[in-house]
Hints:
This protein is of the alpha/beta class. 27% of the residues lie in helices and 20% in strands.
Amino acid sequence: xxxxxxxxxxxxxxxxxxxxxxxxxxxxxxxxxxxxxxxxxxxxxxxxxxxxxxxxxxxxxxxxxxxxxxxxxxxxxxxxxxxxxxxxxxxxxxxxxxxxxxxxxxxxxxxxxxxxxxxxxxxxxxxxxxxxxxxxxxxxxxxxxxxxxxxxxxxxxxxxxxxxxxxxxxxxxxxxxxxxxxxxxxxxxxxxxxxxxxxxxxxxxxxxxxxxxxxxxxxxxxxxxxxxxxxxxxxxxxxxxxxxxxxxxxxxxxxxxxxxxxxxxxxxxxxxxxxxxxxxxxxxxxxxxxxxxxxxxxxxxxxxxxxxxxxxxxxxxxxxxxxxxxxxxxxxxxxxxxxxxxxxxxxxxxxxxxxxxxxxxxxxxxxxxxxxxxxxxxxxxxxxxxxxxxxxxxxxxxxxxx
Length: 402
Ligand code: NAD
Ligand code: ZN
Ligand code: ZN
């Protein structure tokens, strides 16, 4: 089935702090190396989000080629299918996991789609709209998705999906990602949890911690309006510019300086505590999260860490961070990092949303729907610490009531 459009408008990276909306060719069922992809589909985007991970590219801490189409958090309608696609049909509403995964390699077969061995063999990790495999992103009107039968999560009912589209839009990345961090940190009913970062991913972490039945959920950040979104939804907060030690901040709330589980939702542009709140150092958040965790506790590291070319510290430009391992080691820590395997969680979390088990999610997220043309400005506002989560609606298909 062919559709009428022959062009594709998309948000394109032109350099640090320079995103533009360009008109490109309509996507083909073709891999980045030009090989035909009859296992792929073309998706017409309904909701395509801007993420903190995009900010790393915007700021220059995660280098990307000029001309790359941005975006890795996509929800849309299947409009064209390759000849080998068996289970999807035009008209299906789907969530696209941000990891590009073949479904055929050793890791994919074990559910470890975040380290697919074939879609970007250089580092065994591929994502749309990243310098990871050359797959065009989805902050666009249309996009190509390979291995579609394997990768796409289809929503069971189109009308119901459109009613809940803004909650469902975070299934492509930030909700499953945040949930993964908590699972890695061993969160279960009754756990005390420290969440580093009140950006959209940290706020999803706070929501997911509630879903998992955590007891005391403490969120740390500097932006009061971001903290307010979680505070009014049952979480405790620490303004990190007002404490000199994370353990003091936790003790003031919990009566003990440690939590059971702590997760880094920050990444390598982290700020320090108290006097050092204006300073950045790539290892600040990891060390705070290790400090926060009790002996025998566990830690998840969801924030993105790689060689950071804009760091003032030469070692960090090589990807070498000063982790306070001596203090951590004696506590027998469990530390897990990496990209999240979205497919491992997205179906279950979709069911939680469809059955209204996370009624607090949308208030914590604070989504604003924007047009494609508004995306470059939204990057700038998000970079400045806006408490909104920006969701682009390239075709004007999201009902205004949301
Ligand atoms: P964001 O930039 O909006 O949020 C980061 C927040 O951390 C900001 O509010 C900032 O003020 C705060 N912060 C800075 N230093 C801190 C510190 N020391 N302690 C606590 N908070 C601190 O970004 P986001 O969209 O919420 O994403 C958060 C991180 O998660 C990013 O690094 C992003 O790349 C990463 N991420 C990882 C995956 C994955 O699969 N691992 C997926 C999605 C996003
Ligand atoms: Zn993302
Ligand atoms: Zn694979």
